[in-house]
């Protein structure tokens, strides 16, 4: 709990094991079967730990949600099993997994996550999401409920889970051979949680971990999402496209925490960002062009979308050349997509339409395409402008992206004093500078 | 699939990590915190693998079901996490976990178990139980349904899970960098399972493991349990007390398999048995007396129960001495408890009431107290009499019991030709001599 507020926090997303660009699996350096190769996943996590990254972060939706005919899957086969595998092969890095409050029973969730927290010696985080994907509801023979109902249940599930976590008293694990007392039953009590959506009696017979219990995360910026985060979350995974947007969202979240009687600093915003690192900016861009070339049809679609973003039909022009000066002046950012100003900027700087696409202007997160220094500069600018507490970094291809980030970007950040040189403690809470918590906060 | 029918199969139960006797944790050689020590659990599993044991078997009930004030817990903190931990640290041993068909959603179960099967390279088994413990229902805010309903749902959950397992075609995982086809969507289809109790659409986006999909086990001898086993199970965990009882039960199960259109040999019965091994029978018995002495009150209760088993109030006699000859002739086995004849036998042989108790006559399974040869003799007799296909072995204290079994009993069995000298293949199916299966059997 002696983290330096002038240092950013970083979690790594390897998505399904390949990384955040769903066609990089075709690159020569990619491992085409990374999806099913847990050894590789564990190796990359160990590398991330060498780089002192705070945690792995795993998004999840229990359904098939993208086109795996040509793209790599959006999620790992199973976050719980990946987290356990990594836990057994690492010592410091945190393990944050996404588990739906809608499609899990609180007792099962509480049990899985607390056990994992115990065996990882206090390194687990739970990203609480309500799941709004229809395909998931189909997998559970139901439909997606209203946002109000989903979040109503989410509050209850989290209350129930945290209550179960607290149901085994902090000092109840006696295991004293001489006296013969294994556990102090006076400290192990049912919770008898009776909500509108879920009920559970407990107790959950699992002792505390070194950090007490898992840390909560949240993702999703709706009003209900912010309230859930303000009440429970110590980390929020966010996807702003600009520093201003990010700063504003961070302030909203900090206010929400305070409204729920917590310190503003108890909530850490992790903004997502993606990267392609090479020795030069040109090489990085060439790599992204290579990946784009794998799917010309998708590129055409994206060009049409880019046209809409900049208010000009680009497909009638030479898309592999800088736009003529006269045309550049006609570009106008579409206010409906916050990524548009950046697209206009790049085209005006002389990037061709194809290169502009390759720069990642239509990605889910801001993208840095360049050298390790470019990446470090981006992170520093966002961090020092108060836009965020840290980052959820997404390499284009995990197989080499993790290595480049750890070996090239991390040393620069450490040199500049904006990233820790070692883990502050042994638990995720300590490394994120969070207060201890056990059971449901009163 | 070249297992030798003249060789027994053996799975190991470490229960919550301590073993099957809930007070052995107080012995000097015990590790008092085994419950939370995954390193120790993994080490013991590795030792079991050295002994070529076929699998670890983990019973489970998602509730606190015994008196952990003085006893070690009945179950591990979380079977899935223990199985994953072991999977990552072993290469051959199977991993059979108990997961309730009542308190899990089929999609979550299918996903967890198939993922674990993939990352363990085909070593997973699922012990299907319906869970009849009230405390569990309380943890899920419900009540225990009738047996008919529980088994009705069990059939559906297994159908749904196996259908989901088969929803990703066996050859759908293309991941060909050149063609850019990651998966063959023509082979990945929804299952649209619509039962009375559960519904799920799928598909489950997980490729087959080396054994296709996990092996099914069952436990519980009710008529409904036998039908479930006959239809789905390749392994049954049984608790007979005599060879005759076991043979009869095995025949019933084999008939049930045939009735469901399967080969009788596709169902393997694993009878549970417990042991205490020492260099001499006397030492083994002394160790059990030492454990009994930890709880004099429980011993008194057990003496009263033993009295009822043998039709004579033993508590008025000197319980630490052989019964007087005249008294021995008065003993009569209580037909309501199948363990009674053995109790009478031991008392008549001259074991004192306390020693008779220490011999384990009131245990959940038959108990062998003696040398490694005594244990081997017991296993051979049961196996060669056609009582069983194998055993689910439960050491009194796992910490040393696994070692003694592996180092002392296994070589004797191998010497006698009744236990394999090495794993037959790389998957649980191969090592159990089971046919390949993928998806729901038609
Ligand atoms: C950055 C970010 C990451 C998200 N990750 C996940 C995820 O892993 N799984 C999931 O089900 N939903 C995820 N969501 C979706 C949100 O939890 C939420 O459902 C979504 O934003 C819809 O909002 P609402 O449910 O508040 O209406 C994510 C959202 C954002 C903004
Ligand atoms: C040897 C054996 C092992 C069992 N293991 C478990 C277990 O691990 N978890 C569980 O919930 N039930 C277990 N059971 C209970 C059975 O699944 C079943 O619920 C019980 O025998 C009651 O029978 P019924 O449900 O068929 O009425 C076991 C039963 C036997 C005989």
UniProtKB/TrEMBL annotation, chains A, B:
<keyword id="KW-0285">Flavoprotein</keyword>
<dbReference type="GO" id="GO:0004497">
    <property type="term" value="F:monooxygenase activity"/>
</dbReference>
<feature type="domain" description="Luciferase-like">
    <location>
        <begin position="37"/>
        <end position="388"/>
    </location>
</feature>
<dbReference type="InterPro" id="IPR016215">
    <property type="entry name" value="NTA_MOA"/>
</dbReference>
<comment type="similarity">
    <text>Belongs to the NtaA/SnaA/DszA monooxygenase family.</text>
</comment>
<protein>
    <submittedName>
        <fullName>FMN-dependent oxidoreductase (Nitrilotriacetate monooxygenase family)</fullName>
    </submittedName>
</protein>
<keyword id="KW-0560">Oxidoreductase</keyword>
<keyword id="KW-0288">FMN</keyword>
<keyword id="KW-0503">Monooxygenase</keyword>
<dbReference type="Pfam" id="PF00296">
    <property type="entry name" value="Bac_luciferase"/>
</dbReference>
<dbReference type="InterPro" id="IPR011251">
    <property type="entry name" value="Luciferase-like_dom"/>
</dbReference>
<dbReference type="InterPro" id="IPR051260">
    <property type="entry name" value="Diverse_substr_monoxygenases"/>
</dbReference>
<dbReference type="InterPro" id="IPR036661">
    <property type="entry name" value="Luciferase-like_sf"/>
</dbReference>
């Amino acid at each position: 709990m002696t983290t330096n507020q002038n240092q950013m926090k970083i979690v790594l997303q390897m998505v399904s094991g390949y990384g955040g660009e769903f066609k990089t699996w075709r690159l020569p350096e990619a491992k085409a079967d990374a999806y099913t190769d847990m050894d590789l996943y564990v190796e990359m996590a160990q590398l991330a730990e060498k780089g002192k990254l705070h945690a792995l972060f795993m998004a999840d939706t229990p359904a098939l949600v993208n086109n795996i005919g040509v793209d790599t899957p959006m999620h790992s086969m199973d976050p719980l099993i990946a987290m356990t595998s990594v836990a057994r092969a690492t010592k410091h890095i945190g393990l944050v997994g996404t588990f739906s409050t809608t499609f899990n029973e609180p007792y099962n969730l509480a049990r899985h996550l607390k056990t994992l927290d115990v065996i990882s010696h206090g390194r687990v985080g739970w990203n609480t999401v309500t799941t709004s994907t229809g395909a998931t509801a189909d997998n559970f023979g139901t439909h997606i409920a209203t946002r109000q109902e989903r979040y109503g249940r989410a509050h209850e599930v989290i209350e129930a889970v945290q209550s179960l976590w607290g149901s085994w008293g902090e000092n109840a694990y006696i295991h004293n051979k001489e006296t013969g007392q294994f556990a102090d039953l006076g400290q192990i009590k049912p919770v008898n949680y009776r909500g509108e959506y879920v009920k559970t009696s407990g107790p959950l017979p699992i002792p505390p971990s070194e950090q007490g219990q898992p840390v909560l995360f949240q993702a999703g910026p709706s009003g209900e999402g912010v309230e859930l985060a303000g009440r429970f979350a110590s980390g929020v995974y966010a996807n702003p496209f600009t520093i201003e947007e990010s700063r504003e969202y961070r302030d909203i979240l900090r206010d929400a925490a305070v409204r729920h009687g917590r310190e503003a600093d108890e909530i850490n915003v992790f903004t997502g960002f993606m990267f392609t690192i090479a020795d030069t900016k040109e090489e990085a861009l060439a790599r992204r062009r290579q990946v784009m070339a794998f799917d010309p049809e998708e590129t055409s679609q994206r060009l049409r979308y880019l046209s809409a973003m900049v208010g000009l039909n680009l497909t009638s022009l030479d898309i592999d050349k800088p736009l003529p000066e006269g045309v550049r002046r006609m570009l106008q950012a579409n206010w409906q997509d916050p990524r548009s100003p950046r697209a206009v900027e790049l085209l005006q700087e002389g990037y061709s339409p194809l290169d502009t696409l390759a720069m990642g202007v239509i990605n889910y997160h801001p993208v840095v395409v360049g050298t390790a220094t470019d990446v470090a500069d981006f992170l520093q600018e966002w961090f020092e402008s108060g836009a965020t507490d840290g980052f959820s970094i997404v390499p284009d291809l995990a197989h080499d992206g993790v290595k480049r980030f750890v070996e090239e970007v991390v040393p620069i950040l450490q040199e500049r004093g904006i990233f820790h040189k070692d883990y502050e403690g042994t638990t995720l809470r300590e490394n994120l500078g969070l207060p201890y918590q056990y059971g449901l906060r009163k």
